[in-house]
Amino acid sequence: xxxxxxxxxxxxxxxxxxxxxxxxxxxxxxxxxxxxxxxxxxxxxxxxxxxxxxxxxxxxxxxxxxxxxxxxxxxxxxxxxxxxxxxxxxxxxxxxxxxxxxxxxxxxxxxxxxxxxxxxxxxxxxxxxxxxxxxxxxxxxxxxxxxxxxxxxxxxxxxxxxxxxxxxxxxxxxxxxxxxxxxxxxxxxxxxxxxxxxxxxxxxxxxxxxxxxxxxxxxxxxxxxxxxxxxxxxxxxxxxxxxxxxxxxxxxxxxxxxxxxxxxxxxxxxxxxxxxxxxxxxxxxxxxxxxxxxxxxxxxxxxxxxxxxxxxxxxxxxxxxxxxxxxxxxxxxxxxxxxxxxxxxxxxxxxxxxxxxxxxxxxxxxxxxxxxxxxxxxxxxxxxxxxxxxxxxxxxxxxxxxxxxxxxxxxxxxxxxxxxxxxxxxxxxxxxxxxxxxxxxxxxxxxxxxxxxxxxxxxxxxxxxxxxxxxxxxxxxxxxxxxxxxxxxxxxxxxxxxxxxxxxxxxxxxxxxxxxxxxxxxxxxxxxxxxxxxxxxxxxxxxxxxxxxxxxxxxxxxxxxxxxxxxxxxxxxxxxxxxxxxxxxxxxxxxxxxxxxxxxxxxxxxxxxxxxxxxxxxxxxxxx
Length: 624
What we know:
Elements: H1 14-20, H2 23-26, H3 30-46, H4 52-70, H5 84-96, H6 109-144, E1 150-155, E2 158-164, H7 165-190, E3 192-193, H8 209-215, E4 220-221, H9 225-230, H10 233-260, E5 267-268, H11 287-311, H12 325-348, E6 350-351, H13 353-361, H14 367-376, H15 381-398, H16 407-411, H17 421-424, H18 427-432, H19 442-456, E7 461-465, H20 471-483, H21 492-497, E8 502-507, E9 510-519, E10 525-532, H22 541-555, E11 560-565, H23 568-572, E12 577-578, H24 585-590, E13 604-609
Parallel strand pairs: 3-4, 10-11
Antiparallel strand pairs: 1-2, 5-6, 7-8, 8-9, 9-10, 11-13, 12-13
Helix pairs in contact: 3-4, 3-6, 3-8, 4-5, 6-7, 6-12, 6-19, 7-10, 10-11, 10-12, 11-12, 14-15
Domain N-acetyltransferase: 461-595
Keywords: Acyltransferase, Amino-acid biosynthesis, Arginine biosynthesis, Cytoplasm, Lyase, Multifunctional enzyme, Transferase
Family: In the N-terminal section; belongs to the lyase 1 family. Argininosuccinate lyase subfamily. Belongs to the lyase 1 family. Argininosuccinate lyase subfamily.
């Protein structure tokens, strides 16, 4: 159904209809169109166009249509309607007859679509800000847990000065903070309501536009009808914010691709965010990061496309503006999926500390410190710089790092160099000397982490029983620690059947740890499959999981609890005492015969007596 047929003698050709209709993409605005229509029905009721009873009927029918759409029970895409506005009005007319035909009184599709798109954009901005904040929290956790690791910093892709890995993480938090602030600013500007502007000149009906705007959650109405129906600055702002953020994500991806390469080998990416080669079995490709980097160009294209579309448009509405949506819809989806995937990557990262340290010591990064040392002895910086360069040339020729040169070798370049030079050439000194705000020293890095933790909110976590929706996260954790031979592997169908055995730690909405309480037919229970994500360790989450399972075991009136572990000191702190695995035939028969280490077991058995709340000084061994 078209909303403009009265003036035409013949119908549109099928070719024009397919070219002109926007329903294949603007159906995404259906809930916003319904929301705006409810607001408009109230406004025209107050203006005397609808009776109160008609408005109430219309509002209820629109709410019913909204529920139908949400339940997936609509035929919107196969309806043949020209656009989402036509479809909503047609559905309403089918339900209410002539009452529905009054809804469009005083309203144009020009102010209607502008309103719908602002409502949709506002909602998506909130989702994107949340995703950016989550990404910052994940990076902050990674930084917090890796403050001691030092790796080379780079300029011109050449090793420059050593930095803390946490400092690198904090740099991207700064970028994502700016991305979030751009969206916050854009949200304020877009939160003005075009509805009531009509086609371009306003409406003749007595509409309280302030009340209408506030009913739809806007701060107020747009005050110029020409601008209101033709303005797409808010779309441009989202596209620009997306382009800047995707550029940040692309740089983030490029850094990690390099860090993960065989040449650098500073980090290892988890199996869950990498893929293999169909030909070369040894390959482990960083596909998630490469796709993030690759999708950046698509987002840039959407921004450039809309800028070109808008640059030559006369005032006010023109059909060219229909081209604002597809690029926006795709951009928002791609941006959000890249932020989510970046979080997956962050949570999978393991630091190869020894390799980072070795690389940081190479490349003569301490040459600047040698120059500063000479400056402290009264040598002008330019002279000190030249002397340090000569030392580097000599060290390269000797194939030695500067700190390995003997004192007499160093003295040939300056008699001012003494034994006290060696401490300042050490890696930790190079890093921690930069203790100024914004530097990579331990103190400023730690202070910024604490500040971010305060600003982003503390890590809200809960220990709870697992749900089936946690299966993917549990499976990832179990597979990860099984690959490290800390737990026994568990097949997915086994995990599904035993999902009620599991408890999880959820931090800021993300499952980052799990453990299971398995009950044998004899009444013995075991803590197993205990694992916390590598980037969430040191927070007491493992302790919280075990205590949760202990409480569950008490409520089930179990008598004793066992664990088999390579970390006996951890469980000893929780009240478990040494036991003997051979006294636990249930465990031996259930799992030990399946373990390739059964003849060379290095696990310790521990037991907890639940009868009197005190440990039972008899047999036990590991967390699987």
